[in-house]
Fold this protein.
Amino acid sequence: MPFKIYNILNKRNNKPFSYFKYAIGEIVLVAIGILIALNVNNLNQSRLEVVAMKSYLKKIKSNIENDILESQRLLNFRIEHTNDCNKVSQMLIDNDFSNQAKIQKSITEMIIEVQLNFNNSAFESLKNSGYLQHLKNENLEQSLYNYYDTIDEIVMFEIDQDKIAEICKETCITVSTLASSSFIIFQGS
């Protein structure tokens, strides 16, 4: 019975059926539009992740390059300082107090420490951002972790050396005091 009424209405007026087709067509178009929008959004999100990852990697590269330059500069300073200290030590052993400026400069440089500071801010930002999981190159990821683990070891070594340097400073101050008093005595005789 319900089909007979529908058929009668349908024969008289085709509008309900055309409204139904129109509604189905609208639903399909909206669904397709939503799927296209989601796809575009996913593509845009992927593009933004790639841009962010490149930015983090550029900053990490810059930090590492600066770390290398700073390490080389500090290494050169320490080599020069070590050579100066060796010369001054030999002068003191030989009771040669003729170059007081050089002795004082070496002792001052021994007292004033220059710390090795590495910059890991970009790597820490990358880890905290959650983008590290999007890094496709596992070798690069492992290399970054190895580099910063090595940096941590170097920093710990530097801290240990600072403790040793404190003892050396106290010894150098004592030697400087003795050298000055010996120089005064040496001049007086």
